[in-house]
Amino acid sequence: MSDQHRHAGDHGNGHDPDHGHGHGHGHSGEGRRGLRAVLGKITHALAPHSHDTSDKTDSALEGSDRGMRVLAISFAVLMVTAAVQAVIVVASGSVALLGDTLHNLADALTAVPLAIAFSLGRRAATRRFTYGYGRAEDLAGIVIVLLIAASAALAGYEAVRRLLDPQEIQAVGWVAGAAVVGFAGNEWVARYRIKVGKEIGSAALVADGLHARTDGFTSLAVLLGAGGAALGFPIADPVVGLLITFAICFVLRDAAREIYHRLMDAVDPALVDDAERILATVQGVRRVGSVRLRWIGHALHAEVEILVSHDMSVVTAHKVAVEAEHRLMHELPRLRAATVHTDPDGPAGADHHATLTSHRTP
């Protein structure tokens, strides 16, 4: 016997007793009696089984709301920071400060694609986009990487141009002050984005927070250029501008790697370990087969296989699958939907997937 169980339902609603827990699954045959009820249970048991619960959906929507709020506040803070620095760039002519200002402006503008992605992610799944629009966050991540690359190119160009034609920096004290303002604004935004990004499971928001943190430290690097200029070394300003460009390139590498992992459905191996541990403790599960996890936006989706006794009835195997799913939904952070596939364990030598062997990739 090889049965695959998938079923969508809502937490908190009435639930068929055969599911073994108090969460509704929306049975069309609920309340039937006799033979029709038995047939309904067996038909339901043979269908694939998945949870897409209302509390998880509400949590995902709440995460999107929090993400939008973070983006709005951080956008305002960084725009004010960049505006203050831009005024001092015009007055001082500091290329290091110009590079930092451009970087801060680019960081602020990353809020735009992320806001669009969070908004799209709230849309319901359709027959074309059956998993919903959560992947829009990954597309926004690509835009963020391109913006970071553009800021690095522009800052590098200005630094090289000024290195070839050094110019005296005016208002050195104001340049130093602007650098401190840039550090304070970026560090506050970084902490805010990283904290909320981790809480809602948004890799794009966390990456953007790390980007802001690096911007803060590059703002402090501007102080070195200002100090060098004050000591009579105007070349220090474009040299620091080049150092900032290199720093942006390191951020670009890290951000690109983060987005690449999401696009390739990479997850933290510790999450897979947790899922296997949870499944192994479910009563009736003899062994845990494959466990596949993927991020869709800032929500996790799972596809897992469990092995149960080969002489277990379809209805009982279904109960085990539902309980396994139920445990995953409640114990694996940010898991929004799960599909549980049950396979019979035994008898010895039996191959329950023989007909599929030729279709499976080695």
TrEMBL record:
Topology term for the membrane: Multi-pass membrane protein
Domain Cation efflux protein transmembrane: 72-264
Residue segments, region Disordered: 1-32, 339-362
InterPro entries noted in UniProt: Cation_efflux (IPR002524), Cation_efflux_CTD (IPR027470), Cation_efflux_CTD_sf (IPR036837), Cation_efflux_TM (IPR058533), Cation_efflux_TMD_sf (IPR027469), CDF_Transporter (IPR050291)
Main location: membrane
Xref: Gene3D superfamilies: Cation efflux protein transmembrane domain (1.20.1510.10), Cation efflux protein, cytoplasmic domain (3.30.70.1350)
Subcellular location as annotated: Membrane
Taxonomic superkingdom: Bacteria
Keyword annotations of the record: Membrane, Transmembrane, Transmembrane helix, Transport
Start and end residues of each Cation efflux protein cytoplasmic domain: 269-344
Membrane-spanning segments: 70-95, 101-118, 139-157, 239-256
Family: Belongs to the cation diffusion facilitator (CDF) transporter (TC 2.A.4) family.
Database matches in NCBIfam families: CDF
Name the UniProt record assigns to this protein: Cation diffusion facilitator family transporter
Species lineage: Bacteria, Bacillati, Actinomycetota, Actinomycetes, Streptosporangiales
